[in-house]
Amino acid sequence: GENVEQHPSTLSVQEGDSAVIKCTYSDSASNYFPWYKQELGKRPQLIIDIRSNVGEKKDQRIAVTLNKTAKHFSLHITETQPEDSAVYFCAASIGGYQKVTFGTGTKLQVIP
Amino acid sequence: GAVVSQHPSRVICKSGTSVKIECRSLDFQATTMFWYRQFPKQSLMLMATSNEGSKATYEQGVEKDKFLINHASLTLSTLTVTSAHPEDSSFYICSVGQGAEGYTFGSGTRLTVV
User: Fold this and answer.
1) What are phi and psi of A55, to 5 degrees?
2) Which residue of A has its CA nearest to B111?
3) What pLDDT sits at residue A66?
4) Contact B114, B13 (CB under 8 A)
């Protein structure tokens, strides 16, 4: 089955700096890679996703890159703000209908 | 994306009793729903895939007789934790997959077994 690894497990950055979270996946059939932000006790919220037919996607301060050959994908948050503080999960699935495998999570702390 | 409603949001039960959690897809006919469990400070782990009109598919290590899943309609899947014990205390969350629209999660259920 799919295995998704995520690094780092914790990340502290100064407000205004950039944050980068990296993930790898094992199943070459995976073609949908969402990123979720989860606040304590709440449901995961989709912040950005990318499909295997593109290498990069950007939405304001958030961008995701995908390297299919290396089976790597990364989340980039620029100009971080205190409200970006949360746990972020990467994930991988096939098509968006099949089960999602989550990474282990990254606790991001943005220091004002 | 779909609107997914999950109830109850919190439940406290005594050890040995059963608890039922409902997951409703309010505006999308879901032939498949997913049930996850999340322990504190850990990731979401898939427990089972709920299939409308047929048996659920359980992940390795998940006891099917303990975690009963019923998906009798295209809008409702239920997870029943039978004979609950304190180690079953966790955050349970359901999800609906919509292909190009991605996945939508329910609001989750915090189960505490005392």
Assistant:
1) -105, -20
2) A41
3) 97
4) yes
DSSP for A34-100, please give it.
EEEEE-TTS--EEEEEEETT-SEEEETTEEEEEETTTTEEEEEE-S--GGG-EEEEEEEBSTTTS--
> Which chain B residues are closer than 8 Å to A101 by Cβ?
46
Return d(Cα A104, Cα A102) in angstroms, integer: 7
B82 to chain A, minimum CA–CA distance in Å? 23
Is 90 exceeded by the pLDDT of residue B100? no
Q: Is the pLDDT of residue A94 over 80?
A: yes
Give me A95's structure tokens: 């098509």
Contact between A44 and B105 using a beta-carbon 8 Å cutoff: yes
- Rounded Cα gap, residues B65 and B80, in angstroms: 10
A32-A96-A107 Cα angle (round to 5)? 60
B5: three-class secondary structure by DSSP: strand
pLDDT band at A54 (very low <50, low <70, confident <90, very high): confident
Contact between B27 and B4 under an 8 Å Cβ cutoff? The reply is: no
Look up residue B59 and give its DSSP letter.
P
Centre a 10 Å sphere on the Cβ of residue B100 and count the other Cβ atoms it contains.
9
Rounded-to-integer distance, Cα B83 and Cα B15, Å: 7
